[in-house]
Amino acid sequence: MLTATKTNISPGKLLINGQWVEGSGKSFDTVNPATGGVLTQIAEASAKDVDQAVAAARKAFEDMAGPWRKMSASERGKVLWRIADLVEANIEELAELETLDNGKPIFESRYVDMPMVADVFRYFAGWATKIHGETVNTFSNAFTYTLREPIGVVGAIVAWNFPLLLASWKLGPALACGNTVVLKPAEQTPLSVLRFGDLALEAGLPPGVLNIITGGPETGAALVRHPGVDKIAFTGSTVVGKEIMRAGADTLKRVTLELGGKSPNIVFADSAMDSAVKGALNGIFYGKGEVCCAGSRLFVEKKVEDEFLSKLVEYSKKIKLGDPLDPKTRLGAIVSEKQMQSVLGYIEAGKKEGATLLAGGKRAAVNGDNGYFIEPTIFGGVKNDMKIAQEEIFGPVLATLTFDDIDEVAALANENVYGLASAIWTNDIKKAHQLSRRLKAGTVWINTYGVMDAALPFGGFKQSGFGRDLGMDALHHYTELKTVWMNL
Ligand code: NAD
Fold this sequence. Notes:
- The chain has 16 helices and 24 strands.
- The chain has helices spanning 47-62, 67-70, 73-89, 91-102, 106-127, 163-176, 191-203, 217-225, 238-249, 273-285, 305-316, 337-352, 387-390, 406-414, 429-438, 471-476; strands at residues 14-16, 19-21, 27-31, 38-43, 135-136, 142-150, 153-157, 180-184, 210-212, 231-235, 254-258, 264-267, 297-301, 356-359, 363-364, 373-374, 377-380, 397-403, 418-419, 421-425, 443-446, 461-462, 465-466, 479-487.
- Helix 1 packs across helix 8, helix 4 (91-102) packs antiparallel against helix 7 and helix 5 (106-127) runs parallel beside helix 6 (163-176).
- Bound molecules: nicotinamide-adenine-dinucleotide.
- Nicotinamide-adenine-dinucleotide is lined by residues 157-161, 166, 184, 186-187, 216-217, 220-221, 224, 235-237, 240, 243-244, 258-261, 292, 392, 394, 420, 460, 464-465.
């Protein structure tokens, strides 16, 4: 149970088997990145706590006479729908907790992220009754069919940039298919997920179906190694994604990975320039650039470079950076001091490599110097082999490059280890579709950036991972396919 008023948030416990319990290990502080102040203490789940959470999830899954396995698909759908209703009913509190913990503008958490959390649960509530196998005609003396069964215990591990939204991407399909879950939010941002735990219980999830354990890499690693976990659904960095694949190999866990990105945002000279400028800014500065699909590599057709970049810089100066709880703020605080130092390090690397700093480039002071704010930063004259063009910065830093034609930009855009998202701005429909096919990315936006819907799959090519969150496709990653053959 997490209780919160504007000035007082209770310490975070662990949700195991339907009960809030103290962790048996240490605890750690969760910090408000806008002030540097401690918000509250959070339990760091030990290997023993992980064991108990997995045991609770396993029991809830295996008990065929228990409430979860006896629940009809329709009733499961209703529970998910009630979760969505409760998220909406508590949207102000959830948004505020997430903004305090993560530093994102309340405008984003209140009007974009939390409404999408509710949408995701409603979307998967509808799927609960539509998960089925097929009867297949084989021999005249056989009855052969397939079943789509839940996998079992899912370990869901998520990143800090969209704490509750990323959790909903795992929980929606996992629960719709009848699995049980042990969820680990990121150590930087556990608060909204902990508060959500209460809402899930209130909605009628039986004990043990959703367990929430907080902690850092060690807690996550204990979950990945655990033989009682059947599948790991992970959102986070590519480095940790690779570790999880290796660690999960011992028990041959099902693994899906939603990892990093360095997404190309491509602007042709024939695009509607004002929309493209706004799209480019939204693509990199929404969520402070701490967005896996951020449009962090902007490719501008050379003949409009000067005009486009001068507008881009001019508009970037109007972005309101400030207190994340102020409804007018559009650029909040970087999630942690460590992340801020890493982003500032990339800005220095960009300058050293010879890119031209066109806007921003420094830490910003908001209400004194304690918060972790960085100005919206734009580099021009970037070469595709520079560090700031190749590596994921995960902050409000845009690298702009130029190109002459579709062949050149297709090659440059694909010259990167990641392949999460991409965008094309043009009024030439044919060119847009031709280039869409050539981009190695899980999503291509045309004349827009960053829009999502619970019904559309989201995930990566190349080192951005595999598997898909959202959409019908996500369901297949939470079921095992069984063939049944009966001789007649
Ligand atoms: P991270 O990989 O460091 O941590 C993510 C989660 O994994 C956290 O909960 C962390 O505690 C846990 N963890 C860390 N080490 C672990 C280990 N060895 N075993 C098990 N769990 C471990 O990532 P981050 O810095 O928190 O998040 C930023 C990254 O997430 C970026 O690369 C971003 O692109 C990516 N991301 C991807 C998507 C997507 O959908 N593709 C969405 C959001 C964020």
